[in-house]
Design a protein that fits this description.
Layout lengths: L1 H21 L5 H14 L5 H4 L12 E7 L5 E10 L19 H4 L7 E5 L7 E2 L12 E7 L2 E2 L14 E7 L2 E2 L13 E3 L4 E5 L12 E3 L4 E4 L13 E3 L4 E4 L13 E3 L4 E2 L16 E3 L21 E3 L6 E3 L2 H6 L5 E3 L4 E4 L13 E3 L4 E5 L4 H7 L3 E2 L5 E4 L1 H4 L11 E2 L18 H18 L1
Parallel strand pairs: 2-3, 3-5, 4-6, 5-7, 7-9, 8-10, 9-11, 10-12, 11-13, 12-14, 13-15, 14-16, 15-17, 17-18, 18-20, 19-21, 20-22, 21-23, 22-24, 23-25, 25-26
Antiparallel strand pairs: 1-2
């Protein structure tokens, strides 16, 4: 038994050793290209001395290889991933230096690359966006994250990337317009171009991006109308177009996005069309943010099919009229409701007092009045996240007023329990003015006893 175990172990070691010996090595020209890229990212580290052997057998974290079968049946090995910029101890990619750089010529040798990733690499010396099309049709992921010195545009640099699934440029100074060619990259599942310097109109045709799940163009200088073609992307889960200059009407075509969970169109220039009624036809929504647009109108009765919503932002949207009680009835999963800086009036619906999931509510700077419907326990849970300032006619009962709860409750007046009778509403009981005055005093005394 011991002999058979020994023979089995020896055979296993032989097979492993034979596999290592027979495994193809990285082409010397491709190995040299990896060294040159590493040195361009951080020239202070002696990469060639630290990793003198085949980089596909021994390489720094972030350099990944894979085997490929050639047309003649032989195997070859190539670099498939280049990731730079230390992220964490779990992802210790080669650290970037202040003078890090990259260029099209440095990348042109990697015809089998699937992933290119730069995190906080270009933050001192200006670096132009390389021509990504030289990487060929194998490229699946391009990520430039927090690289403020990355400049230039994407125009003409995205061709031939037919396998591209993820395109991420966030926290850079890349500028120009959104390339029209995006519509031809039909494998895209994620487009994140947030916090850059993109300008102009988004004129590209998105209708071919049937696999797209995430579209984030937030915090740029984009303007004009939102393309109607976005409404045809049935797989979309998230749209974030916030903090741009989009105008006109929010496209009705968005109602076709039955799987959409997150919609953020806040802080644009959409105006004067009211809150879109089609939101009530999108039952998968979990967050809706329209704040900072002058939509106007009243809050519509659209909440019956939106019980899954966890966050809704309608701050500073020009709303008038009353807050619908139906919001308190159907938004049982809501954690955040923002209705501040509008022209809302009337009372806070009693039904809002039963929103047990609520962690924050902002009703500041409206024209709300009357007694708040919240219990001491509810208010204590909310604390400073219950924002009510700027509604001088709101009041609280004694329990809330003296509960020493942090936040804006302490600034509200105590509700007066004595019924106020206007002079125009005094009931005339007959007799002379002395008798009327007597009856009036008796009535007021009776109401005081009832209170």
């Amino acid at each position: 038994m011991a002999l058979s175990s020994y023979l089995f172990s020896a055979l296993t070691l032989f097979l492993i050793f034979n596999h290592v010996i027979s495994q193809p090595v990285l082409d010397s020209a491709e190995q040299e290209s990896v060294y040159r890229v590493l040195e361009s990212i951080n020239s202070e580290i002696p990469w060639r001395n630290l990793f003198p052997d085949d980089l596909c057998l021994s390489a720094p974290h972030g350099v990944v290889c894979d085997l490929f079968e050639e047309s003649n049946g032989s195997e070859s090995i190539h670099v498939t991933e280049l990731s730079f910029g230390y992220v964490s101890d779990y992802s210790p990619n080669p650290p970037c230096a202040p003078n890090s750089t990259i260029s099209t010529s440095l990348l042109s040798s990697f015809k089998h690359l699937r992933k290119l990733f730069f995190y906080k690499c270009f933050f001192s010396k200006q670096v132009s966006v390389p021509d990504l099309s030289v990487l060929g049709s194998s490229l699946e992921e391009v990520l430039f994250i927090e690289n403020p010195s990355l400049v230039g545009s994407l125009e003409g640099k995205m061709g031939n990337l037919t396998s591209l699934r993820r395109l991420v440029f966030t926290g850079t100074n890349v500028s120009g317009e959104i390339p029209d060619g995006f519509g031809d990259l039909t494998s895209l599942e994620q487009i994140t171009l947030s916090r850059n310097k993109f300008t102009g109109e988004v004129s590209g045709n998105f209708s071919k991006l049937k696999k797209l799940k995430l579209l984030d163009l937030s915090q740029n200088g984009l303007e004009g109308n939102v393309p109607d073609s976005i409404g045809g992307l049935a797989e979309l889960l998230k749209i974030d177009l916030s903090w741009n200059k989009f105008s006109g009407k929010i496209p009705d075509g968005l109602k076709n996005l039955k799987n959409l969970e997150f919609l953020d169109l806040s802080f644009n220039s959409f105006g004067n069309f009211g809150i879109p009624l089609f939101l009530g036809e999108m039952p998968s929504l979990k967050e809706v943010h329209l704040s900072g647009n002058k939509l106007g109108g009243v809050i519509p009765e659209i909440w019956e099919n939106l019980g899954g919503i966890m966050g809704i932002g309608l701050s500073d949207t020009g709303l008038v009229g009353n807050i619908p009680a139906s919001m308190g009835v159907f938004l049982r999963n809501a954690c955040y409701i923002g209705l501040d800086n509008n022209g809302l009036e009337g009372t806070v619906p009693e039904e809002f007092g039963s929103l047990e999931s609520l962690n924050e509510i902002n009703l500041m700077n409206n024209k709300l009045r009357g007694k708040l419907p919240f219990s001491v326990e509810f208010a204590a849970k909310m604390g400073e996240k219950m924002k009510l300032e700027g509604n001088p006619d709101l009041c609280v009962n004694e329990g809330l007023r003296y509960a020493k709860i942090s936040g804006s409750l302490g600034q509200l007046k105590l509700c007066n329990n004595i019924t106020h009778i206007s002079s125009s509403k005094v009931l005339v009981l007959g007799g002379n003015s002395v008798q009327q005055a007597s009856h009036l005093l008796m009535l007021l005394g009776f109401l005081f006893l009832l209170a």
